[in-house]
Write the structure tokens for this entry.
Amino acid sequence: EVQLVQSGAEVKKPGESLKISCKGSGYSFTSYWIAWVRQMPGKGLEWMGIIYPGDSDTRYSPSFLGQVSISADKSINTAFLQWSSLKASDTAMYYCARGVLPGATRNRYDPWGQGTLVTVSS
Amino acid sequence: DIQMTQSPSSLSASVGDRVTITCQASQDISKYLSWYQQKAGKAPKLLIFDASNLGTGVPSRFSGSGSGTDFTFTISSLQPEDIATYYCQQYNNLPLTFGGGTKVEIK
């Protein structure tokens, strides 16, 4: 079974750093792009960017470029989303999702991880 | 960026009704549109890809059509388990973009 399992909920203060994870299993992790998608409370889905774990090629949405960092460690089949200095406006649910077509940057997504809730509050 | 305009933002219908949601792209995206279902507190689930192809295990009451800039998603006979928010997503150009969502409720 193809599966993405994300790390647990986080509560942080403004200015703190954070790295959340997404572990893939049941498929060749290095062959499919992984996306990160933000969902702010009560709002819609926003595509943040993608990474190809095979060579760590990364593409960002202009809205998120410089705000977050996407990385991957293919030795442990895990992708990461990282902040160096969190803001209250980063409070959201974050999903990872796997591209359906191997090697394709432009892709629909299936499956999705269960989501990681990040709360930033003083 | 390609803007995806989805309508309506919410709707209320009776069990058994036909439900239609539209999605308009700000430029030609060919057939590269997918539809997702998100139930409350859950991750999105892929229902339709390439505008009209049903995802694995998706019931046949769901369908999609369109190409270019105008797309339609239909539930032929609304069921109680279809209560969710539905999103379109274009994957013709990076950055990929989603519509604003349509919340479907039972009347």
The interface with chain A takes residues 1, 32, 34, 36, 38, 43-46, 49, 55, 87, 89, 91-101 of chain B (CB under 8 Å).
